[in-house]
Automatic annotation (TrEMBL):
Name of the protein this chain belongs to: Ava_C0101 and related proteins
Source organism (scientific name): Actinokineospora iranica
Pfam families membership: DUF5996 (PF19459)
Domain of life: Bacteria
Length: 309
C-alpha cells in the first residue's frame, strides 16, 4: 500500500461530512456511557485494524459492557456486547437520521439504554439539524472512505512513533469525533486558568499543552494537513524556525498553527521522515518558548530506563 496516498478533499467532501456526523452520533453515546477522564480522554475514538472504536463502555451505568465499531473495510457499523452478541448494518445508503435510528435500534436489541443529553451535532462551523431530523446528509462512497481509512491508519502509526520520544504526561493518539481530527497531546504540569472558558475548553486546556495532529481538511483550509499548536501560546512562538521548507506558521484565532500540508509531505522523498521532522520541530519550538525541560522529558526510542554501559 502506498504511504500517504492522494486524498483530495474535493473528491470525498460529501462522504467526509456524512461520516463526521455519523461519528458525532456514536461519540455522543460514548460521552454518555463512559466514566469521565481528565482532559476528556474517555470520549475520543481509537484506531483498530479495520476502522475506529469507542472501546468498551457500559457496566458503570447498569448497561451490559458494549462497544461500537466503525468498520471501514467492510463499511458497516458494528455494535457488540461482551457476551458475544452483535448487531451491524451498512454505512452506505444511510442518512444521518436513518443512521441515528439504526444505532438506537441496535442498542435496544442488545439491551443497552443510553440517554443522550443533546442528540445534535457539536462544535461544527455550520448549523446542522438534530440527528433525528437530518435526512440531507447521506453520501457514502466506499472507495474514498477506504482511502481515508488507509491514510488515518498510517498517520495513526506515525503519531505513535512520534509519541515514543516523550516521557511526560501525554494523551493517547486518538480521533476526536467533534472535530474529526487525529490528535496527540503533550502536557506540562503548569496549571492554566480557564475559569472564563466553556466547560469543554476548561477541562481540555487546564494544563499547558503542545498538541499535534492531522485533519482531513474543511472548507476553510481546503486540504488535509498535519498541525501543531502550543496552548497557551508563548510569546514569539511564530518566530521559531520550522526547518522543513514546506512547513509554516499560520494564524489561527488569536494564535498560530504550525502547518504542513498533506500534499507537501507526500512530495518529500521520505514523507514519513518529513512528518516526524515537522512534528519534532514544532514541539521544540513550543517547548523552548514555554520553558519546558526538554532533556528531562526526552524518551529516545521509547526507553526511560538507564541503559548499562
Amino acid at each position: 500500500m502506498e504511504l500517504f496516498p492522494a486524498l483530495p478533499l474535493t473528491e470525498w467532501q460529501d462522504t467526509k461530512t456524512t461520516v463526521h456526523l455519523f461519528c458525532q452520533v456514536v461519540g455522543k453515546i460514548r460521552l454518555a456511557a463512559s466514566p469521565r477522564r481528565n482532559h476528556w480522554w474517555n470520549v475520543p475514538f481509537h484506531a483498530t485494524g479495520r476502522g475506529v472504536t469507542t472501546r468498551p463502555m457500559g457496566q458503570v451505568d447498569g448497561n451490559p459492557i458494549f462497544t461500537i465499531d466503525f468498520d471501514f473495510v467492510g463499511h458497516r457499523l458494528v455494535v457488540s456486547t461482551v457476551d458475544g452478541r452483535s448487531v451491524s448494518f451498512p454505512l452506505a445508503g444511510q442518512s444521518v437520521a436513518s443512521f441515528y435510528r439504526g444505532v438506537l435500534d441496535a442498542l435496544a436489541a442488545l439491551g443497552v439504554t443510553v440517554e443522550i443529553a443533546d442528540p445534535s451535532p457539536f462544535g461544527l462551523p455550520e448549523e446542522y439539524p438534530p440527528f433525528a431530523e437530518d435526512t440531507e446528509h447521506g453520501a457514502y462512497d466506499p472507495v474514498w472512505m477506504t482511502r481515508a481509512w488507509q491514510v488515518l491508519s498510517q498517520v495513526n502509526l506515525v503519531l505513535e512513533e512520534f509519541a515514543s520520544g516523550f516521557s511526560g504526561k501525554a494523551s493517547p493518539v486518538h480521533l476526536f469525533w467533534h472535530s474529526f481530527d487525529l490528535a496527540y497531546t503533550r502536557f506540562s504540569d503548569r496549571r492554566v486558568d480557564q475559569s472564563a472558558a466553556d466547560p469543554v475548553t476548561r477541562e481540555a486546556y487546564s494544563r499547558e499543552v503542545i498538541s499535534f495532529g492531522f485533519w482531513f481538511g474543511d472548507p476553510a483550509t481546503g486540504e488535509p494537513a498535519f498541525y501543531s499548536y502550543t496552548a497557551p501560546e508563548p510569546t514569539g512562538l511564530a518566530d521559531e524556525p520550522l526547518p522543513l521548507k514546506a512547513a509554516e506558521w499560520v494564524a489561527n484565532g488569536d494564535g498560530h498553527l504550525a502547518l504542513l500540508r498533506y500534499d507537501d509531505a507526500r512530495a518529500e522523498s521520505d514523507p514519513k521522515a518529513a512528518v516526524l521532522a515537522f512534528l519534532d520541530s514544532a514541539y521544540h519550538a513550543g517547548a523552548r518558548r514555554a520553558g519546558w525541560d526538554v532533556d528531562h522529558l526526552a524518551c529516545p526510542g521509547g526507553v526511560t530506563a538507564a541503559q548499562p554501559a
